[in-house]
Amino acid sequence: xxxxxTFLLIITAFLQISCEEVxxxxxxxxxxxIVVEAFTSNIEGRSYVKLTKSSTVYTNNNFEKIxxxxxxITDQNGINSVFLEDSTEKGLYLFPSxxxxxxxxxxxxxxxxxxxxxxxxxxxxxxxxDLIMGAPISLLPxxxxxGLEFFDPSTRLILYLFSDPIPTGDNYRIIAYINGxxxxxxxxxxxxxxxxxxxGGVLFGADVDSADVVHVELLTMDNANYDYFYSLVNNxxxxxxAATPSNPVSNLTNNALGYFGxxxxxxxSFVVF
Amino acid sequence: MKxxxxxxxxxxxxxxxxxxxYTISGNIKDSETGEDIIGAQITIKEMEGKGAITNVYxxxxxxxxxxxxxxxxxxxxxxxxxIKVELNQNIRKxxxxxxxxxxxxxxxxxxxxxxxxxxxxxxxxxxxxxxDIESIPVLFGEKDILKTMQLLPGVxxxxxxxxxxYVRGGGSDQxxxxxxxxxxxxxxxxxxxxxxxxxxxxKDVKLYKGAAPAEFGGRLSSVMDIKMKEGNxxxxxxxxxxxxxxxxxxxxxxxxxxKGSFIISGxxxxxxxxxxxxxxxxxxxxxxxxYDLNAKxxxxxxxxxxxxxxxxxxxxxxxxGEQLSFDWGNLTSTxxxxxxxxxxxxxxxxxxxxxxxxxxxxxxxxxKIELGSQIQDFNFKKDFDYYLNSNHTLKFGANIIHHTxxxxxxxxxxxxxxxxxxxxVKHSVESALYVSDDHKIGKRLNLTYGLRYSNFTQIxxxxxxxxxxxxxxxxxxxxxxxxxxxxxxxxxxxxxVNLILNEKSSLKAGYSRxxxxxxxxxxSTSATPTDIWLPSSNIIKPQVADQVSLGYFxxxxxxxxxxxxxxxxxxxxxxxxxxxGAEVTLNPNVxxxxxxxxxxxxGLELLLKKKTGKFTGWVSYTLSKTENQIEGINNGxxxxxxxxxxxxxxVVLMYNLNERLNFSGSWVYYTGNAVTFPxxxxxxxxxxxxxxxxxxxxxxxxxxxxxxxxxxYNKKTKIVKDIDNKSVTVKKxxxxxxxxxxxxxxxxxxxxxxxxxxxxxxxxxxATKLALxxxxxxxxxxxxx
Lengths: 273, 785
Hints:
The complex is a heterodimer.
Chain A: H1 2-15, E1 19-23, E2 34-41, E3 48-53, E4 70-75, E5 80-85, E6 92-94, E7 105-112, E8 115-122, E9 129-136, E10 156-163, E11 171-178, E12 181-182, E13 187-190, E14 198-202, E15 213-221, H2 223-235, E16 257-271
Parallel strand pairs in A: 2-16
Antiparallel strand pairs in A: 2-3, 3-6, 4-5, 4-7, 5-6, 7-8, 9-10, 10-14, 11-12, 11-13, 11-15, 15-16
Chain B: H1 2-15, E1 21-30, E2 41-44, E3 51-53, E4 59-65, E5 67-74, E6 81-87, E7 91-92, E8 95-97, H2 101-106, H3 116-119, E9 125-129, H4 145-149, E10 155-157, E11 165-167, E12 175-179, E13 182-183, E14 188-189, E15 194-195, E16 202-208, E17 222-228, E18 237-242, E19 246-256, E20 260-269, H5 271-277, E21 286-302, E22 305-320, E23 324-342, E24 345-362, E25 369-389, E26 392-412, E27 426-441, E28 445-459, E29 462-467, E30 473-479, E31 484-502, E32 505-516, E33 518-521, E34 532-535, E35 543-556, E36 561-578, E37 594-610, E38 615-630, E39 639-640, E40 647-658, E41 661-670, E42 674-675, E43 680-684, E44 687-691, E45 698-699, E46 703-713, E47 717-721, E48 727-731, E49 735-743, E50 753-758, E51 765-771, E52 776-784
Parallel strand pairs in B: 1-7, 1-8, 12-17
Antiparallel strand pairs in B: 1-4, 2-3, 2-5, 5-6, 9-16, 10-11, 12-13, 14-15, 16-17, 18-19, 18-52, 19-20, 20-21, 21-22, 22-23, 23-24, 24-25, 25-26, 26-27, 27-28, 28-31, 29-30, 31-32, 32-35, 33-34, 35-36, 36-37, 37-38, 38-39, 38-40, 40-41, 41-46, 42-45, 43-44, 46-49, 47-48, 49-52, 50-51
């Protein structure tokens, strides 16, 4: 994050003399693939499976939804939960009372368009937020705002703190909703560095104003899910300093795109100061 | 041990031939500055085909049968000196060559009958005399040897305005860049837009693209051997320049006249001042600059001993107020002792220290967080040149390097109330023994053969990990200080042959094997200061390359025009790439993110060069292909490496209209880099994500650009009356020139990057091209006295 931030400044100096232009690049059309977004959690009603199809690059963004699929999640004790297609939204599969338990392995099995896609996800422990607040930088504790002088002191930021247990191997993601609208930035971290410490930071990119209502989910996930989101954030772009792009590392079989996650989360809501 | 033995048996067997022979040896210097002349040619009129060339310290040695000889000393741009000797004992002949008079008045370099390129077995070698590139137009008017090298065949730029380079399909980390023998680990400033080499302090640059001599090792693809000036040993001299980006100042003077001298050269940029003009108010507290400092001193203790001390310090510093800082740079120092053991045996002992590091600082005082990384070397070398007789020149030596790698050094201020462990430090020892022989057989056949044995041992303290398929640690092994962790050995044969077909042409062939034990870990497509070096380990095997090359050399018009055609085929083993989505920065288990495979590169390089006259320059063309095959990438199929470019053309022309005016121009064209673009898209978490089907399956648009420059010299000479009241022309003490240049004259918007994103208005995906540097004019004032 800091690395990117620093480079941005340096690059900005060069961009004064650079220019951007939309150009025509002919691209091949990849074969259509099934896209799975299988999000399950310990919060009742916050689990869903979305099935869509990929499209070619220059078509519009109305992606085809897959109806009539079979979606079954089985836990390690052999209990099946059949997710059923929502009556109002095509391609959305739900099981309203489904809840992820701690330290449990789940198998996902999807039959869609004559293809079988499977995936496995393991839950760990339920995290808890020590502190989360939204306020102008000038009002945040000094020790937590090092290096933020780049921003105007009146800029409002969301600050979080949570404690990581001592064993290494935990992965976290924060999802934020601002006035009910999902913040499209990904906030993910692991404890390979700083295991057992208190983790704190700022949700850079979450654009908030005074009196905004913010809802936050802090969730834990397995390594495969961390790798998926890490590569989604870092490897799908094509910017000047980006890594060679590739598809995110999926935990699904049969060349499907997307992910299956079994998350445990702590949620809270607050009003920005 | 076996190799030493081999060297001795070779020496013994060769000794049988020498009887009643004597040696002429000595040093060749420039008469005006006292600088050693590298590569001056010594020929014997009475014995065609016999001769010698001065080594990098200006030393030569030639052994001939007893007799009377006429000896010619030549170097391009200098007056040829001829002496007569009666060789009935060993003779020491030190000589100073003067710049030819014509050069002063007409700016025309004398056309020498050199033909050097035809005679040596060296192929795939590019030499640049720093003086010769002065007028080539460059970005922001910053003279840069690395960028000039990119205009030669087989050498490719790493990107727009970038000082990084690729040689014959190798990666930018496969070039061994030596500054006075010290390896420079990160040769670029400001994200690669400038190289760390300040041309004012440099004398000579040699790039080996093919079979490098056995004395060099440790990198796969090339050796760039850069020599700093020794400093003027005759008188105090100063030179400098003021440009758009930086100012430079160099001072040089004798310590004791003709015995020792020093040079000190500095350069500092003012890019930070640019930020002040930026429209972005938030950048007001920002500072960004780099500087370089080169210093060197040498002293001749006796006519057999000479000491050199040289050093380089360069840093980039970025800061934002007191709160955020980022600085990085290299430090190298070299101490050398030349000793002439006998007229035939020249030895050099070298001690080298080299370090690259970066530090990112956030916060201040006790609340500061510092993240850093560094690599540090202690290096000892002993090299010998043994001029056995006029048919054999042997080189042999040994080298040992201790490397310390600190991938992540993390310091957390005490006020912050927590600590984070550093990423473990790694230690290793790299050692090598080599021997090679330049062997002349008759007048037409020259051979060079050599062998280099190298060993790389990773030593404790430290831990090694074993990983499973997903990259999770399955096993940890702990090692004590100096305990062997893992060791690799490499035997690199080098072979070159030159068959002189006739006075005008020759045919050359070469083979070499190279090993690389250190690997640059960088997941980004551009060079960044945070790239780290890692040693070979239980996971990372040494990279190996084999190269065969074949070349035809032909000179025209009394050797004033050189033409060469070279082809090569190279195969690589243990090529490193990354798992999709690899996490590289500050990752203690970064080795688990690596994938290994093989590579191949082949190509044809053509060069037509005019070296003398009013009109000089060259045209180069490269046709090449570079591919890799790595399990886990592109379904295990061969794919084009990012540096794969089919066509690469450079034209460089310089024209000296008269003594005051010089025009120069260059034009480059190359096929766009292989690049990965999306072939589909899909939606995840409400966001549109690109879908990729193959690695590097697309091409960036073709690149071309023209640069022009004019150098206007203030009058170089003045007319004075001599004692007899006659008017004579003398060179002025104070010389200066203005250099005007335009980068990208016709404003070609070459793509620096292409990004695919959704247009907010239309909701459709579109490709956006970013072009840097549209038309960049610049002006530089240079002086020397």
